[in-house]
Design a protein that fits this description.
The protein is α/β, with parallel strands linked by helices. It has 13 helices and nine strands. The protein is globular, with a radius of gyration of 19 Å.
Length: 359
């Protein structure tokens, strides 16, 4: 039985990709992966990275790049237009690359807390410093991301969408380690309940029926959708390539999957991960370096995921369904050759999870 929008032995990318040729990046994503994704190409300049793409999704919250970074303004500036142009160009390329495609497709967007820690208010402090501004940004992002999802669904009607919310800044938000705009201080920590509520606002905008645990409600909603009932059919996951990922908070917010760098997991994380797996939450495990390095044998790449599954005591037969392999993080810092090889290595290592999960 397949409980997820993907099949067994699945691999995908995280987000960024090297170079400036978005069509080539898409060709690699569709050619090397069982779950292709929409790459981000930061090398193209302002507006093409994770924060710029998040800025491009904001609705009725104009922003522009200042010397210190993105800032809320009275009207959209040329950098916001450039970010939007990058996104539209990428979507046009996706539509071309995905002609006739049916299957899982992952897209990703910056989460509200990481975006709030990067964008400044008009007077220069970060959005994160103002609870009301965080609320406004969250609602703007939620509306923009919902529109983005519908656009992708229209362009690739055969896709089973996995939407990844990127929150590498969330642990710092919770710990109170995000620097002020001046860099001389630190912003106050955000209460976990508030953090979960804001993240949940974005997730519920794209997946209204998102159950806080497991996938059974999602499966039921998919059945309702097939019979004419309303549901987004989106499978939301949250990516955090930073230590101290708050797994319980992500589940409470409605995430149906966690995307993490395998090397950053600690023994203290395993109880929360085990509870999530038991509830049906998917794991997207980063097992291949995101920068140029010698890639080990695929059996070695797959081994940490297999060992984690064994330590937690789960049935090996479920490993290849519930675990998706990815690079450790984005590939923007890699050479194109390594980036392509890394995705191929994830694909081959994912097959090991299915073929010999007990060894």
């Amino acid at each position: 039985m397949n409980d997820y929008p993907w099949g067994e032995a699945t691999a995908t990318g995280v987000g960024s990709y090297p170079g400036e040729d978005h069509l080539e990046a898409l060709r690699v994503a569709f050619g090397e992966l069982s779950m292709p994704y929409l790459p981000e190409l930061p090398a193209r300049g302002v507006g093409a990275d994770m924060i710029g793409r998040g800025a491009a999704l904001l609705v009725e919250l104009p922003v522009e790049v200042q010397p210190s970074g993105w800032r809320v303004t009275d009207r959209p500036g040329r950098d916001a237009k450039r970010a939007r142009d990058h996104l539209i160009r990428d979507l046009d390329g996706l539509e071309e690359a995905a002609q006739g495609y049916e299957g899982p497709l992952k897209i990703q967007a910056c989460g509200p807390w990481t975006l709030a820690g990067a964008v400044e208010l008009r007077h220069g402090d970060k959005v994160l410093s103002d609870a009301g501004a965080v609320r406004d940004l969250t609602e703007s992002l939620a509306e923009g991301l919902a529109r983005h999802v519908e656009d992708v669904r229209r362009r690739v009607p055969g896709a089973r969408l996995v939407v990844q919310i990127d929150e590498p800044g969330l642990p710092g938000v919770l710990a109170g380690t995000v620097p002020t705009a001046s860099g001389f201080g630190r912003l106050r920590p955000v209460e976990p309940v508030i953090a979960g509520e804001r993240l949940g606002t974005v997730i519920s905008a794209i997946a209204p029926s998102a159950p806080p645990s497991g996938t059974q409600a999602w499966l039921a909603a998919r059945s309702e959708e097939a019979s004419g009932e309303t549901d987004s059919g989106v499978f939301p996951i949250v990516h955090c390539c930073a230590p101290r990922t708050p797994f319980d908070l992500l589940r409470t917010a409605g995430a149906r999957g966690f995307s993490v760098d395998m090397s950053l997991l600690r023994s203290r994380d395993e109880d929360a991960i085990g509870e999530a797996i038991e509830a049906g939450v998917a794991l997207f495990l980063g097992v291949v370096p995101g920068t140029d390095a010698r890639l080990p044998d695929v059996g070695v790449i797959a081994k940490p995921a297999i060992e984690l599954w064994r330590r937690l005591g789960f049935d090996p037969a479920g490993l290849a369904r519930q675990v998706v392999l990815t690079p450790a993080c984005g590939l923007a810092g890699a050479s194109p050759r390594h980036a392509k090889a890394a995705l191929a290595a994830c694909r081959e290592a994912a097959r090991v999870l299915r073929e010999d999960p007990g060894e």
